[in-house]
Design a protein that fits this description.
The protein has 21 helices and no strands. It is flat.
């Protein structure tokens, strides 16, 4: 169904259709056509087609050599994302052939490039250079993986106070990722209970971000039911991440709870959010073992009601997860 329905949408500029079509070509071992589909999304500093291409090609265990020439050409032409993709594809070599394109991507302002550069330099034992690259990623570009790398490096060097300062600021700035490390560092510093109480008090006062931090601290401590309650509080206060994480930390959700949380997510993202946030969130939830079955009827209803994004998601689900090409084609045609 993807090969039938997506070419026209891809030619019309729908990036997700191009990505799905490129993935189908990779399944056919036709890397050249996958490259041709994604290359237009790989030609400027802001596009992510090069990273998409790398993920598509490597995600199925396919030989990546066919993509190297494309990455090299576009990196040389000045597309930082191409340099990032080239550096990532060469990362296993741990040598200058990976360092040069990653440094180019980092110098161009891509935080992920700085973070990968820090990891490469750390593996080479160049600790001061690695710290500098991680700090660029974390402090200048607010890249979560850069903050995680910097935190781990400082911990390994016994600089616990500095690590705590880095991870606290990163967590409060970007709770979607960095709070996963905060609990561990607080525990090492003997301040877990103190910090949990502080964040919890602010959460109860009506601030959603501290609720997300509470949820992740509790999750790191194995207190999953309390973590889920904190995510629900963040969702009720209007933070999309709290809604997105509902149910994600528990395995004992009853059917009614699953239906309720799926409805909250669908209403929040597809009723008031952007089209992109709707598609990305619902796609992730459909893959969730607990919430996916509860989300599927909502997506079907949305498609029947004329929501084209719901039809796209439904077609993708039937094609990729349910192996039902007939149902997939019917939804994609809508």
């Amino acid at each position: 169904p993807v090969r039938k329905a997506c070419p026209a949408a891809c030619e019309a500029g729908h990036a997700e259709s191009c990505r799905a079509l490129a993935t189908a070509f990779v399944f056919d071992d036709d890397i050249a056509r996958a490259e041709a589909v994604l290359e237009p999304y790989c030609s400027t500093a802001t596009d992510v087609g090069c990273v998409w291409l790398l993920e598509v090609v490597t995600g199925f265990g396919t030989e990546i050599a066919a993509a190297q020439e494309l990455f090299e050409r576009l990196c040389t032409a000045g597309a930082p994302n191409a340099c990032l993709a080239l550096g990532r594809s060469r990362f296993e070599a741990r040598g200058p052939e990976a360092e040069a394109p990653l440094r180019t991507a980092c110098d161009a302002g891509l935080g992920e490039g700085c973070a990968h550069l820090g990891g490469l330099l750390l593996d080479q034992g160049r600790f001061a250079d690695a710290e500098a690259a991680y700090r660029l990623a974390c402090e200048d570009h607010e890249d979560p993986s850069g903050c995680a790398g910097l935190t781990a490096l400082l911990e390994d060097q016994g600089r616990t106070s500095e690590a705590l300062d880095v991870v606290t600021r990163a967590c409060e700035r970007n709770p979607s990722w960095d709070c996963r490390d905060l609990g561990r560092v607080l525990e090492a510093a003997g301040r877990f209970d103190e910090a949990l109480a502080s964040y919890r008090a602010v959460c109860e006062s009506g601030e959603p971000v501290p609720c997300l931090i509470v949820a992740q601290l509790l999750h790191s401590a194995g207190r999953f039911a309390e973590s889920d309650d904190a995510n629900r509080r963040a969702c009720e206060l209007g933070h999309s991440l709290g809604c997105a994480w509902l149910g994600g930390t528990r395995s004992d959700l009853g059917e009614e709870s699953r239906r309720r949380d799926a409805q909250v997510l669908y209403d929040h993202y597809c009723g008031t959010g952007s089209r992109r946030s709707c598609v990305e969130t619902v796609r992730a939830v459909l893959e969730h073992p607990q919430l996916g079955p509860a989300m599927l009827p909502l997506v079907k209803s949305g498609c029947l009601g004329g929501n084209v994004d719901a039809c796209w998601l439904l077609g993708e689900y039937y094609d990729v997860h349910a192996d039902d090409p007939v149902a997939a084609e019917a939804a994609l045609r809508v």
